[in-house]
Write a structure and sequence with these properties.
Elements lengths: L1 H22 L17 E5 L10 H9 L8 E5 H28 L2
Antiparallel strand pairs: 1-2
Helix pairs in contact: 1-2
The structure holds zinc ion.
Zinc ion binds next to strand 2 and helix 3.
Length: 107
Amino acid sequence: MRNVMIEGGSKAINQLRLEVLKLLGSKCSDVGCTWSHPDVLQIDHINPVMGYREPSWKMLLRIKHMEHPEHEFQLLCANHHRLKTVRDLEDICEYKSSLRQLDTLGV
Ligand SMILES: [Zn+2]
């Protein structure tokens, strides 16, 4: 019973994912990148949200019902998504360490 539900669910999620990819332009948003194959496209929060990971089906449903999903989400190919994630993490680390510096300065 449980397995059947999961299987049916993942098909529905795939369908939903394809719809959302279409809504977001069906290609990598990185300038000059031409990847558009649905299997390599990933949905990226333009402004990274830390500490809270929404289940993917929930995120997909939310995107589908948004008036301007492109303001909050973009598509990136796996490579560019990876690069952005690394950059975002670096930004957050820098931000945190700048906060620590403020602490030690007594500001
Ligand atoms: Zn790309």
